[in-house]
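Hello again, I could really use a second opinion on something today. I owe you a coffee for this, so here goes:
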Amino acid sequence: MTKAPEAPVSRTAQAVRLSGVSKAFGTGSTALLALDDVSLDVRPGEFVCLLGASGCGKSTLLNLVADLDKVSAGTIDTGGSRVALMFQEPALFPWLTVTGNLELALGQRGVPRRERKPRATELLASVHLAGFEKKRPHQLSGGMRQRVALARALALTESTDDRSTVLLMDEPFGALDAMTRDLLHDELERIWRERNLTVLFVTHNVREAVRLGDRVVLLSSRPGRVIEEFPVEMDRPRRIDSPDVATLAARITDRLKEEVSRHGS
């Protein structure tokens, strides 16, 4: 999914700026407040991971940034960047080939028909799936399908102008086995660097957040509020099982447990 490209370029120095964002579902006495007065800045090129208990509004926040839903209060500014959202499930069209899925996304971006196939081939090569162009989703492993989903998210930001790209990722590796997830961490980090992406990444896995992020942002239990931020001051590349990652992950886990216990859930 992608935000409309017509939005004017903002003067903000941030790739994403949330200012006093609240989101309620429903009205009156039955309204459910999912997010409450969330303010968060994400710098261009930064990799920020969002953590919090289930139901704290992490996915809702991504949907708001992607313009799939509207805020109840506050503002969101993406500085004119192109914004793409990658879901936990690949959600590929099963009747299309891998190339067909990417060409469809490129068509949504307005890429001319004659340019779509070569661009799709380039995108597949960028996620190490060269040679799988004619396969259909059911012929691929779970990790391969997620690579295609990542390539599609990148396709949704394709353009001829110099707009920056914000990639929103909603637990994209949560259903994968540990080895495949670790390999995709490496792939994502490589693509993030090569394409100078700004990434906002939702996960329940604390070590994954520390492994990938420049910064880990912890949300409170519902309604979601930013309660603490943890800078990750470690050299890259990192290993998810390294002592430094484990130490910071333990500290964040303790803070998360404290928050969950405070709400009795």
Observations:
- The beta strands are 16-25, 32-42, 47-51, 73-77, 82-86, 165-170, 198-202, 215-219, 226-231.
